[in-house]
Amino acid sequence: MPELPEVEVTRMGISPHLIGQKINKVAVYNAKMRWPIPLEINQLTDQVIEKIDRRAKYLLLYCQAGIALLHLGMSGKLCVVDSTMPKKKHDHFELFLGSGKSLRLNDPRRFGAVLWFKTLEDASLVLAHLGPEPLTDEFTAEYLHQKAQKRQTAIKTFLMDNKVVVGVGNIYANESLFMSGIHPKKAAGKISFKQYQLLVENIKQVLAKAITQGGTTLKDFTQADGKPGYFAQELMVYGRAGEKCKICQTELTGLVIAQRATVFCKKCQK
C-alpha cells in the first residue's frame, strides 16, 4: 500500500506537469472504485489546476470550480503520460491536459478513490477525523504523550491510528519503533515522555528520509515518472523477519499485531 512518503513523492512528481494546465477532458473508464466516482467530477473539464496539496494519503487538486480528492488505495498509482499512449489495463480515470499529457489513475484492486467537492469545507466530510501531519510542528512528544494517557493499545497500533497521527503506516511504524528501542506490543500508555520524545524525532526522520529518497520500493509503487523508490534497501526491520538485526545480530522476530505484519528485535526492543 502506498504510504505517506509514496503519496508525497507522487504529489511532488505530478505537480510540475499539472499546475497551471487546463483540463481539456475528463474520462472515467470504471467508476466502481472504493466509492463510486461521482458524475460531478466532470466539472473539472475546462478548469485550470491551481495547486496540488496532500492531506494524509489524500491528494487534493484545486481549481476554481472545486476540489478533486484522490486516494491511491491499496495498489493505485498516478502517472503522467502522453495522451496518445494506449490505455493500460486497470486505468480507471484520466485527465487530458492542454499540454498533450494526461494524468492517469491505475488501480488493479480498485480501493482508490476519486471524489469531488465544491469547497475544502465540504471535503471535511472525509478529512475532518484525521490527526496531525507527522512532519509538522503540531506533531510533538507532548501531543503524542497526552494522547496515549491510559491507552492499553499496543504502541504500533496506536501510531497507525489516523485519528492520532496520519501517515505512520506499517513500514514506518516498524522502523521508527526499532530506532527508538520500543517493543511494538508495549501499551501506548506505559511509554515514558522521554521515550515519546525519541519516537517523535525518529518518526519525523524516517518519513523525511523516505520522501527524500523517493518513497519505499514496493511491488505496487512507482513514482509518477515510473521509476521505483529507493528507501526499501535501507529498511532495518520491515520485511526482514528471520534475518539478523543490523545492530546486534540477533535474529529478528516476526508477529502479527492488529492484522499487520510486525518485525522487531528482542534484544534492541525490550
Summarize the structure in words.
A four-stranded antiparallel sheet has the order 1-6-7-5, with helices on one face. A four-stranded antiparallel sheet has the order 2-3-4-8, sandwiched between helices. It has 270 residues and is an alpha+beta fold. It folds into two domains: 4-127, MutM-like, N-terminal (N-terminal domain of MutM-like DNA repair proteins), CATH 3.20.190.10; 141-264, Helicase, Ruva Protein, domain 3. It is elongated and about 60 Å long. 25% of the residues lie in helices and 21% in strands. Helix 1 runs parallel beside helix 6 (193-212), helix 3 (141-148) crosses helix 6 and helix 5 crosses helix 6. The longest helix has 20 residues, at 193-212.
Short structural summary:
The protein is 25% helix and 21% strand. It contains six helices and ten strands, in the order αββββββββαααααββ.
Brief descriptors of the model:
270 residues, alpha+beta, N-terminal domain of MutM-like DNA repair proteins, Helicase, Ruva Protein, domain 3, 4-stranded antiparallel β-sheet, 25% helix, 21% strand, elongated
